Amino acid sequence: METLDAIKARHSTRNFNGKPVSDEQIVKILEAADAAPIGMGKNDTLQITVIKDPDLINEFRNAGDRDFSYGAPVLILVSTKDDEQFASLNIANASCVIENMLIEATDLDLQSIYLWGFWHFGLPKMPELQAKLNLPEGFSPMASAAIGYADDAPAAGGHTGIAHAII
Ligand SMILES: Cc1cc2nc3c(=O)[nH]c(=O)nc-3n(C[C@H](O)[C@H](O)[C@H](O)COP(=O)(O)O)c2cc1C
After folding, report:
1. 16 C-alpha vs ligand 1 centroid, how far in Å?
2. Ligand 1: which residue has its CA nearest to atom 19?
3. Distance from CA of residue 131 to its chain's centroid?
4. Does the predicted TM-score (pTM) go above 0.90?
């Protein structure tokens, strides 16, 4: 796929059908993650966790009042090192990593969605579940990509767009 075509074809899916994603596909998505721009070269402040064990992913998706993962068979979580001074850099870095993964997933004909709410509002209230992520000391979940297949994938295009000014 041409780069711009992949960018425009990416859409959020909220009805994954559970069809598995192969390890080869996950490796390519991680390659895209590794190629993301990282502010101040702070790569060591980021940690990626691929959650694909069905029992574990079920524990996460059943933890809240609804399945935040929309049935995705793989969640690729980006965690960042706790540091008040660099909080906004952490958010920006994680977003670059996740967007790269979403675009690569699109190029692999997979569906995806960026997930932030559960990691920010839900999981911090569930320390026992968070411990199952085995994150390095001092790291907290920031956001994830959910990856998989859907029966009725959203049509490409039709993004709302953002105000542009060229001056
Ligand atoms: C930073 C960020 C956080 C998001 N968090 C969530 C989320 O927690 N749950 C959810 O259903 N969608 C989430 N989304 C997906 C957006 O709702 C979605 O991207 C937006 O509606 C535009 O639709 P599109 O992705 O199909 O272009 C998030 C997107 C971004 C960029």
Report:
1. 15
2. 12
3. 19
4. yes
